[in-house]
Give the backbone structure.
Amino acid sequence: MAADSAGLPSNYEFWMQKLSVWTQASTLETQRDICLHLPQFQEFLRQMHETLKEMDSNTIIERFPTIYQLLAKSCWSPFILAYDESLKILIWCLCCLIKKDPQNSRESKLNSWTRRLLSHIVSTSRFDIKEVGLFNQVLGYAPTDYYPGLLKNMVLSLVSELRENHLNGFNSQRRKKISLPTSAILCLWLRHLPSLENTMLHLFEKLISSERNSLRRIGCFMKESLLPEAAACHPAIFRVVDEIFRSALLETDGAPEVLAGIQVFTQCFVEALEKENKQLKFALKTYFPYASPSLVMVLLQHPKDIPRGLWHQSLKCISEMLKEVVEDYGSYGGPFESWFLFVHFGGWADITAEQLLMSEAEAEPPEALLWLLAFSCSPGAGHQQRAQIMVEVKTVLGHLTKLFRSPALSARDLQAAAEENQGGDPRPPACQQLVRRLLLYFLLWAPGGHAIAREVITLMAQTDAIMNEIIGLLDYTLYRWDHLCMEARRSRKLARELLTELREQASPRQVNQ
């Protein structure tokens, strides 16, 4: 024992320094360092406990004057508490600090501090009743008083659920929901990754439900899940959620449901970030470690907070920053990482399309905005392919802007203008989707577009996939306009009517399938 304890002071300083870094475990490198060193740290804690249990409290403080700081840093690290073995050893160490008969106010305060730390650990752990009983005596709580808040909350939740079932008819398909405080859920997710993954799984089930085209409902599901709020409170939660979205996006080859989920999640996350953190507790780099900080700052600006006359300037800035990373393959991950960041704030791409469409017919479309549209629809394209998409889009925009103020429009003329192909080869699917988006915005914004909107959409929606694509575009457009506080009463009215009619048309098809 003497040999073991003799080596503790040097190890002690080493782990004290490590913990100071680990408490800021917001970077991937730091998290890897924790995982790498955690077995050695657990062994250090075991040795520490063996040393502490043979000392009285005064000797402990003389030998290790910063022992309270070391144990506190350990107890508030979710990465350390995620392992039950570390958790139990920490509790043993803390129990050694409790003085049974405090002789002065200082010792009483230290006892109270230690009990509060023990309460924090035990109340957020997965111990069973027998294990909890081991610490009741040390904490000074009677067993019946240990979980009063949690038990009261559970009972009230159950009563509320039963009362609702009684009034609305019992539905066996619904789960009995136990409400927990947000702080408890956050603590759970930080310590137990499967519970966070399970929440994400339920969210994905809702994203691909039959009502997948209703972004309002997705927004409600997102807020009910508490994921955006938790992500705003702690970058580790955001990073896990974001990585799951990234994997889903890759596995589904950019499914629109996943894209919509990312954009709604980001919007709710930014709202929660602004609400909770008037001054950011964590640097933006901890949330978006693979992205250019200056690009993140620009994208985080909500368009409604920028005068519309300056939108063009913001879009040009975004385009130039993205282009520098994408085409120069800088230090921020290349095309996919840049595109993945950009789709979080997908509203900028739609604003780009609208800005180009409503520009003067004689004006030359800015290359920066054309590049941004081409990149948003086809991030994996090479330089030559992207240049061809820009040529196609530029041609379509040229025709549409000339027709924008035309007093007499026909659906056939509009379709012909959109189908003119400069390259001769068939357009890539992503380019076709971009052209359909431009056509839809034309119908909503052009004075003469309202009269021919239904006919044009009938000509476009030749397949169920395109029908669902147009429904999704209309739904997202209305959702985006709401957040931008756009007026445009006639355009809104037409978009709502088209969305209702197309959903009614799509429902019988889904039933027949």
